[in-house]
Amino acid sequence: MNDRVLVKLSFDVIREDIVKKCSTPYGQALAYQIRPFALFEEAVSALKMTQQAYSVYARKGAPPFPDAFDIRPAVAKAKNSGILSPQELAAIGMTVNKARRVYAFLLSLEDRLDLSLLMPLAQKLVISKELEEEIARCIDEDALVKDSASPTLYDIRRKISVVKDRMRRSLEEMVRSPGLQKVLQDTIITMRHDRYCLAVRADSASQVRGIVHDASASGATLFIEPERVLQLGNELRRHEAQEEEEVERIVMALSALVATYAPELTAMIAALGDLDVALAKASYASATKAHEPTLIHEPRIHLRKARHPLIDPSVAVPIDLRLGDQFHLLIITGPNTGGKTVTLKTVGLLTMMALSGLFIPAAEGSTIGFFREIFADIGDEQSIEQNLSTFSSHMKTIIQMLDQADERSLLLFDELGAGTDPTEGAALAMAILDDVRERNIVTMATTHYSELKAYGYTSPGAMNASMEFDVETLSPTYRLMIGVPGRSNAFAIAARLGLSDAIIQVAMEKMTTQDVRVEDLIRQLEASVIAVRQEEEEVKRANQTIKAREQQWEQRYATLEEDLQKHRQKARDELSREMKQAQNEMEELLQSLREKQNKGQSLKDHEVTMMRHQFQQIAPAKTLRTVAKAKTAKVPDEGDEVRVLSLAGQKAVVIEKRMESQELTVALGAMKVKVGIQDVELIKKAQQRKETATMVTRSNDHVAPELDLRGTNVEEASVMVDRYLDKAILAGYHQVSLIHGKGTGALRQGLTAYLRTHPHVAGQRLGVEGEGGSGVTIVRLR
After folding, report:
1. Order of strands, sheet of 641-644, starting from the edge strand that comes earlier in the sequence
2. pTM here?
3. What CATH number does the domain located at 149-255 have?
4. Hey, what CATH class is 703-781 in?
5. Sheet of 294-296: strands edge to edge?
6. What CATH fold (topology level) applies to the domain 294-510?
7. What are the pLDDT digits (tens) for 602-647?
8. What is the CA radius of gyration of the chain?
């Protein structure tokens, strides 16, 4: 596809807009090369990459691409053993860092978006951190070599600082000296030829021993380096020379490191360019409100609501067009200034854009076929240098188009056959259209020749079209009407402008009967097409209204559903809080009763009744309703595991059943409570509880509430305590006593340390008077 066609269809303008949206010089260089792909698979892949980039851009904007500093020359220099400047090294380090951030940016979206084409490029952005970290260690943000780049450089710069400080203090003493102030032109210490100097009046120069390095333009001032700092100045020069050598050594080492990473850097730069162009295409699509077209292998075009991207969308009139399926040749007839050429350019430009991997300003569902070549003869091609007429220039272009075109080409002819005798031009135009039609080449042509109006009706594979014209306003509407040939509207326009009816009548009589009939038929056909289109627009508006109302109702339903869910959640949260509060208070009551029983006090029936009453006072009515269950379908037997509903659903084991009083005695750990049969819910039958349940209900018959450890050492006692605590937990104890005696205190201290880390122990303390004092440790179990 030659560049002349790209320019004729304004593709170069589109390309320039994409270049401006690129963030990197690598992307800009690639964007200048955008053009339709020669292979269908390449075009499909490029369009898919644009689609993926568009999903990224729509979700999160553009990635943090590096600043516009081109590191390609620096990488090439390093690869050829050149020494890079600190500025070039800093730019490489920054670019590598930014490339890593672009990778992280895309990686964060990989789980949510299809980035199957972008991520392989993004992976090339990650280079070993060695290069980035080494440059950052040696070069600061201002592109200067850091003092910490090497111990030698640090030492040299420290010496430079010391010498400069000594020189400055020495010169400041001289400036403040009363004897010298009268010979100084200025009290400012200045630099001349990299030497510290004093500004001395020329007529008093002999009073300052030293070397003259410069003089003022008038000669009235001499800049003298005093003798007393001369040696310091020489020492400073030596250190600065050493500094320069060390800096050069450091940048040489860094340059060599860059050279080792040259292949990875080259691949990183190429990947940055490809990603930059893809995101620039996405940005352009967003700015122009473009959509992804469907690319198909067959050479045909279906555009829906298409508009020219360079025309203001607020004034552009969208077109609908199908070409290449029912007919391969579309002839747009009618007068000039009606929008025929814009329509021709729109079809050609949008086809080029789609085949270049770009979204197009057309509605979703638009389809673009694969064309290997697009040829266009548009505008005045007259060549002054070749002294060719307009007709000759057009004909030369048309001959080249016909010679090179095939079934995979798209031909665009603007005002075919113009520039010569109308009769001959019309005949020549029909002959050219016959040729492309017989060769099955997809073609669009515009013409104002009336002889071609019937061509679309009499030639298979051809179709007429025209641009609508509003006779009332005497202006074109720029709407494309497929199936309706154009007409000049000369008589109607003349009448609207005030030409007398008599003259118009005479003109009409001079037309042949056939011409009059053709114009009448075209007028009727045009009116029918307009009426159908108006009906379609009314139906479309009605559908849009219905759809808008459906969306409103759906939104209202969603809002109500959301409010309902919020109220339900609020009620669940409130109920959960109340249940938790009631559970906690119930646990406190149960704990107090367990402590009473552990102290050897028996649990009376009236205390159980009081406990149940207190719980009912604690728990609100709605909490109890959620806990309450229907009457137990089956009465539990002794040994069954049940849940006591009135005690916050506490699990217990039935140890006695009295059917006459409808009561059960249940064991909650080490505590025994009487409850009504209707107050329990069966969980497991005795045979299902297996050995564990049996152990829980019977184990406290064999486990004492204390363990005597006297006479053992710490290691033996630890083993015994571990086994004992396991049994105590199974027996339902919440507190036990460990008897270790007073003695030297070694056993007590060892046990105290051991119990701190034991999983069953919630707390420990020494016994008080009546419990055995310091010879006993009271252990509280979890």
Report:
1. 671-676, 663-668, 650-658, 641-644, 680-684
2. 0.62
3. 1.10.1420.10
4. alpha beta
5. 294-296, 367-369, 301-306, 319-323
6. Rossmann fold (3.40.50)
7. 445 455 555 555 555 554 444 444 444 434 447 888 778 888 887 6
8. 48
